[in-house]
Amino acid sequence: MREITYAQAINEALREEMKRDQRVITLGEDIGGIGGNFGVTKGLQEEFGSQRVRDTPISEDAIVGLSLGAALVGMRPVAEIMFSTFLGCCMEEIVNQVTAIRYMSGGQCTIPMVIRTANSLGRSGAAQHSGRAEALIMHIPGIKVVIPATPYDAKGLLKTAIRDPNPVIFFEHAMAYYGVKGEVPEEEYTIPFGVADVKRQGKDLTIVAYSLMVRKALEAAEILAKDGINVEVIDPRTLVPLDMDTIIKSVKKTHRVIVASEECETAGVCAEISYRIVEAAFDELDAPIQRVATADVPVPFSPPLEKYMMAKTEDIVKAAKKLMA
Amino acid sequence: MTLDKNKHADFYKSMLRIRRFEETAIEAFSAGKIPGFIHSYIGEEAIASGVCGALEPGDLITGTHRGHGHCLAKGMRMDRMMAELYGKATGYNKGKGGSMHISDFSCGVLGCNGIVAGGIGLATGAAWGNQLQGNSRVVACFFGDGAMNRGSFHEAVNMASIWSLPVVYVVEANGWGISFSTRNAINLVDLSERAKAYGIPGVSVDGYDVMAVYEAAKAAIERARRGEGPSMVVCNAPRMRGHEEGDPQTYRPKDDIDKAKKNDPIKRYSEFLVAQSILSKDELKAIKQQVEEEVAQAIKFADESPYPNPEEALQDLFVEEK
After folding, report:
1. CA A224, CA A162: separation in Å to the nearest integer?
2. Of A18, B16, B162, B283, which shows the fewest CB atoms inside 10 Å?
3. Closest approach of chain A CAs to the CA of B39, in angstroms?
4. Nearest CB neighbour to B121, from listed A57, A93, A104
5. Which B residues, 161 through 180, put their C-beta within 8 Å of a C-beta on chain A?
């Protein structure tokens, strides 16, 4: 099967959905003329024109606000927020408008819109360009949270996101755009939300990881295999809805769990998943759940500083050895 | 502008519907029947009535926390609105929105909005959607003078301007943001000057004068419908009551309140109609009677309607998957 980059997979999903449905439009900063800051939307404006692929001023609040309004009158906007740190500039629209309007209306309307944005830890972006914002959004009722690790998942899940009648936030990863390649079939497919993917089968230990942490979990699994520890890696792929069944099934097999994320440690995705494991399968656990996350500080600039505070492959290995001791 | 008798009768009825709805809601609120809070539209009736009087049935609006008037002027029913204020199951939003968030998408009301400037982005986006669909719908976006200092206002109005979107920004300048005078919040005497910064037409009118509002709104709406882009209509209408019911307005000079009350837009308009022999006293009385019946029916409906089942609190978040 052909291999393409993560960026290319997202580009293909957008192109296919825009071809399939005239209502699909996309807007954001620099997405047209230069194909986006990361080149993800390259060629789309040439193919679909500047009305459907719309360059915007630097106005994140209006990008999301206008997407909401367009969705309310039957369009299917895909908004690009360049870095997930910039969600701070449009949080009002997400917290009080996009996620609240349907519920407040008593279900009168549908809001089929997608916000694409990029987490970007690990490229010396410092605090304002090294986003890790999924827990912030996961905390808001009324929006689905999608966070793919591979090109295959990114393409199939973005197509599902665009077809979903609800608000969806789609977290990409800047380090994955050209750093992650993978097999993607030529023929069309979609991936349903709320279905975790077992990225590696194992029997001794479960690592729940998503986004770029999947790659680190798989690297850790290879290292641990040399010590005879057989690791299972589960990628939930969507955080809302969250497929706990697949995770619990794995926990019942391995009885030991690490939850890994690039998020801050405090009040993050790891905490939520850990609680749900404890709630559903406390008696199955042979040891306390281990959390591998990123330190509770703004992301520093200098490479040694950033590397120190980030969740790394060796942190997962260390946590695994603690669990197996 | 010469208007026919029916148009005048419609304006009068629209303004009176709003006034009597608000007065009745305030009574019900004081009696403890309405939870939360009420920001009354009293004194601003001419604005929603004049603007909505210039809209076509398919056009859309967004309202504010002070939004009952917008809903009524656009044609929403009093009974289901009152039921929503009560938090009853028969309310427009099934009791999930309340006073500040009433909406009726079938009537073109994309929602009142409890966040100051909160409706501006979505109103502008609805106009963008209309433009892309090639229909001739216009969006009227209501907000107060307080909203003009929010970043959302700036970003959305600029976007509407560069994309020539069919939206009309209606500023209800009541002079106050709770206790903070607009004089201290914006360093302009004429707020419509702000429009210049966005390269769009802006005009200021007497927001107590329904005919002046109608005339300005009509020009802006027609311009938007022709595809010539957005406009701003500033309607100056000093706040006649407190920010919300129960606000003693200790921060406000008494003569400022008295002056506003003396200029009561409905009193002024009804005197004008009779003096100009456009409508007789009897004709006004007949309209009053219709409105009284509608209000009485609305209160009865809200009183008698059931509360929603508590477990409905967990419904309507996502569209159910097929």
Report:
1. 39
2. B162
3. 18
4. A93
5. 162
The answer to whether residue B94 neighbours chain A at the CB level (below 8 Å) is yes
CB contact under 8 A, B103 and A71: no
Chain A interface includes B92 (CB < 8 A): yes
Contact A317, A285 (CB under 8 A): no
> Among B147, B154, B167, which Cα is nearest to B195's?
B154
Active site positions of A, annotated? 129
Q: How many other CB atoms are there within 10 angstroms of residue A193's CB atom?
A: 22
Distance from CA of A69 to the nearest CA of B (A): 4
Can you list the domains of chain A with their CATH numbers? 2-184 (3.40.50.970), 197-324 (3.40.50.920)
CB B122 to CB A69 under 8 A? yes
pLDDT of residue B111: 97
Q: Tens of pLDDT along B45-71?
A: 999 999 999 999 999 999 999 999 999
Give per-residue pLDDT as tens, B200-223: 999 999 999 999 999 999 999 999
pLDDT of residue B2: 85
* CB-based contact, B147 to chain A, within 8 Å: no
Task: Work out the mean pLDDT of chain B and round it to a whole number.
Answer: 97
Q: Do B319 and A166 touch (CB under 8 A)?
A: yes
Q: What's the CA angle centered on B9, arms B5 and B14, to 5 degrees?
A: 150
Query: Would you state the structure tokens that stand for residue A158, as one six-digit string?
Result: 């973005």
With an 8 Å Cβ cutoff, is B132 touching chain A?
A: yes
Q: Confidence class of residue A11 from pLDDT cuts 50, 70 and 90?
A: very high
- Cα separation, A263 vs A213, whole angstroms: 10
**Residue partners of A201: CB distance under 8 A and separation at least 6:** A232
Determine the Cα–Cα distance for residues B140 and B167; give it in Å rounded to an integer.
Answer: 6
pLDDT of A172 reads 98
- Does the predicted model carry a pTM greater than 0.80? yes
What's the longest Cα–Cα distance across chain B? 61
Closest residue in A to B153 (Cα–Cα): A62
Name the average pLDDT for chain A. Answer: 97
B230 inside 8 A of chain A by CB: no
Instruction: Mark yes or no for CB contact B158/A107 under 8 Å.
Output: no
CB-nearest to A61 from B114, B121, B316 is B121
Q: Which domains does chain B have, with CATH numbers?
A: 5-299 (3.40.50.970)
Question: Distance of CA B246 to CAs A16, B43, B176, Å?
Answer: 56, 17, 16
Residues with Cβ < 8 Å from A237, sequence gap 6 or more?
Answer: A146, A147, A148, A149, A153, A157, A191, A195, A196, A197, A210, A243
Write the ipTM.
0.97
Minimal CA separation from B318 to chain A, in Å: 6
Contacts with A168 (C-beta within 8 Å, 6 or more apart), sequence order? A113, A114, A115, A143, A144, A145, A146, A161
Identify whether the C-beta of residue B214 lies closer than 8 Å to the C-beta of residue B11: yes
- Between CA A44 and CA A30 the distance in angstroms is 12
d(CA A243, CA B204): 56
* pLDDT (mean) for B23-30: 97
